[in-house]
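Quick log. Single chain, no ligands specified.
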Amino acid sequence: MQITIGDHEIEFGPKTLRLSAESTEPPPYEHLELRPVTPYIGAEISGVDLAAPTPAQIDELRRALLERKVLFFRDQHHITARQHRDFAAHWGELEVHPLLDQGEIPEVVRFDRGQDNPGMENIWHVDVSWQQRPPLGSVLRAIDVPDAGGDTLWSDMGNAYDALPDHIKERIDGLTATHDFTPSFGRGMTPEKRAEMQELYPPQHHPVVRTHPDTGRKLLFVNSLFTTRIDGVDAAEGQELLRRLLDQVKTPDFQVRLRWAPGTVAFWDNRATQHYACSDYFPSRRVMERVAIVGDVPA
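-> predicted structure:
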């Protein structure tokens, strides 16, 4: 429903949302327990030890990731960084992030945030969308979390796209957008280092609407952190159009929120979601480790 209040219009009421799979009644899971957190995004998984998942469990987790987009695992305190890496490797080649510090295991990135290094991830984004092949997914493990705060939210880009007005869908059909690390990661670099990294990682031009390679679903694929402009569009129009699309991501109806505890693991489809890490816990400490799986070229 859309109504006018004063000089502005607002829209409210039920939205037509759906799972990634076309089936409204997917078959039951036999080798794990899955409890949806919302009807369309997010699920708590139990009955799986991430240090030693069975082949049958990996097969069902592949399906669950496509259907639910974000999977949550509790009480995985015992897994090591190496086992964390090995779990993610079931999905393919692993990323060694070129702009984040590497630890003892290069594929495992450590985020140690606190009073001297406050969290800066409180912006809706897709991991590493400035690469030619952005990650398929990311596996994030909580090491140390504050007593309160520090939640992470994910937004479903399939339902975000579906809910756009038809005239917006028609306008963005076939458009590409520029994704660039420079405005974010480049800020702390010397001019020489920035030029070197720009040579290695030039801006990428990805579809504004990509198609999921496994589900075939159309997904909104622009984000606030790395998308700098919509290509081939008048600057003023492009800026307004990009703002409209970025606002779409913020709609709570498309989102799921996780309250972390030590040993909690989140695994998300980086192609189908965006995420936002709340930085409301300052100056408390929050320590996380992430492994990312290399994806395909968006199309």
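The mean pLDDT is 93.
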